[in-house]
Amino acid sequence: MTSFFDSVIKQIDEISNLLENDYADKKLFKKIISEIKKPQRVVKKTLTIFSDKGKKVSFLSFRSQHNNALGPYKGGIRYHVNVCEDEVKALSILMSLKCSLAGIPYGGAKGGIKVDVLKLSQKELEKLSKTYAKTYSKYIGEKIDVPAPDVNTNGQIMAWMLEAYEEKIGLKSPGTFTGKPIEIGGSLGRNEATGRGGVFVLKEFAKKEKLVSSKTKIAVQGFGNVGFWFSKFAKDLGFKIIAVSDSSGAIVNEKGLDPDKLNELKNEFGSFKEISIKKNFKFISNEDLMVLPVDILVPAALEAVINKDNANKIKAKVILEMANGPITFEAEEILLKNKKEILPDILCNSGGVTTSYFEWAQNLQGISWSEDKVNEELKVYMVKAFDSVYGVARKKKLPFRVAANYISLKRIVDAMILKGFER
Hints:
The protein is α/β, with parallel strands linked by helices. The protein has helices spanning 4-19, 26-36, 85-102, 122-135, 155-169, 193-209, 225-236, 259-269, 272-279, 286-290, 329-337, 345-348, 351-365, 371-396, 400-418, and strands spanning 41-50, 56-67, 73-80, 107-114, 145-149, 217-221, 240-246, 249-252, 282-284, 296-299, 318-320, 341-343.
């Protein structure tokens, strides 16, 4: 099976073949593409903390900084047992493409710690987070590399990291981390931003394709921050959310589900499986959710959930990617052959990084925007990005991902040329 990193490199190769004709100096173009296909820096460190029992415990950690032609590196830090160098490198490239497509002045980065957070106490989690920030302090900064939350990280972890980083450098630097709590410089609207941005894309796509919201059935795989807010905002616009899932499985109701109510029940009972038992909901596996006969399937959890093993079983007409890299390269070939439309992650889930940009800009200026202003600005950026992708896709008869990558890669190449990249 093609690795996640190799899949991303195949995307770069695919787009560079299309882009090459736009440049007279083919030799320079090919050299730039060669540079873009690898991160500018990958840092690996072993982090050691003392557990609550006084025992030394070590964890492998990473930070991949892909390209800073458009601005400082930007990307989340994830805590997961599957974190590896291949993953953070691939995700850092996707972040470069995502920031470029969104029209925000960042390059791409991604970091992570190989850890099972469920095995750590709150105190151990704090120690590990602060150790990461101090260990990587010389590689990050508000004009160098700006981390944010990702899988299994949140505003509290960013607050710990900011405190440790500022202690290490001896300066106040609130713009070094985004996704922070409001009380220490976080932005209003940031928590909901990724889900809200995805629904802006959904709304614009429905408008272009003349979809009737009340007749459009949606299944959402994943009910974390992104899946919940996407489901809620989509329902608020009249779309029919008929299935949602967490790690235990999926709840289904053909008449439509209420995400707010499900969120309350999940907080009460802990999982959708328990909710289904206690409240008599229809319950299916995550695998079965993926192949439901819906109009739009929304993978909103981890990568590679649609692969060569289940791609031919997908019945949804449209896949709207809210997770990073939820479709493998092999699966995408199958889906496109089967005439499925794929709205790509670098467009659909860019609301988070766009609002992180707003937070960073507020921190640098020492100002605070209202939530209405944040949401209004987010809509402007998301609609502009969607329109550019939709226009190129339809004009050049390209899949949406190819169109998105075409736009974003061209912006990076142009920036490198303008800055005098050496032949």
